[in-house]
Amino acid sequence: MNARTDAGRVEAALARLRQLGERITPARQAVLRVIDNADRADEHLSAEHIGERVAALEPSVHRATVYRTLTALTGAGVLTHVHLGGTGTVYHLATPASEPALEANPAAYGSGDSEPHAHGHGHTHVQCVVCGRVQDAPAGVLDEAARLMREEQGFELDTSHAALLGRCADCAGRT
Ligand SMILES: [Zn+2]
Ligand SMILES: [Zn+2]
After folding, report:
1. Looking at the CA of 45, which ligand is closest?
2. SS3 for 81-96, per residue?
């Protein structure tokens, strides 16, 4: 993503929460700030890592509150998440440019997942099965795959919801 330089992403997320009538709590502000910083550093943080960094910012915020906050903010559409291999999940701030896509095709996402999801936006991720590193794939890398799935099977591929597994350049070179 190249949108890492704009300054007001946390402010924009807070404005959106206010618009939705959602509460602005110290925990929510801390979570947004931690994820914004991680996004800018090209990091992909799990709930556990976000919890650690929030604790450093706001020691009074309990870990369980952080987890609930992640679910609530994802449901409100200000965070997105990506499922990794195994049980991992990492979070990003949702970019305003992605918002129109949220409502664009809700019928395509009838999963039995109980967790709220902000779908249909964001970028494709890949994760190394050797070292666990998560990285962003180039924009549009799965566009052709998505087109083929749509045309041949009528299946709407969600290219940003889960990471694809493989081996990173370092690990592939060593083996
Ligand atoms: Zn690796
Ligand atoms: Zn990413």
Report:
1. 2
2. EEECCCCCEEEEECCH
Written as six digits, the tokens of 163 are: 């990471």
Domain positions in the chain are 3-109+117-174
In this structure, are strands 164-166 and 125-128 parallel, antiparallel, or unpaired?
Answer: parallel
- Spacing, Cα 161 to ligand 1 middle (Å): 21
- The bound ligand whose nearest atom lies closest to the alpha carbon of 91 is 2
Q: What's the whole-model pTM score?
A: 0.74
Token pair of 157 as six digits: 């591929």
CA distance linking residue 175 with residue 171, whole number of Å: 7
Q: Nearest 5°: phi and psi at 136?
A: -80, 135
5-43, pLDDT tens digit by residue?
455 899 999 999 999 999 999 999 999 999 999 999 999
Classified by CATH at the fold level, domain 3-109+117-174 comes out as Arc Repressor Mutant, subunit A (1.10.10)
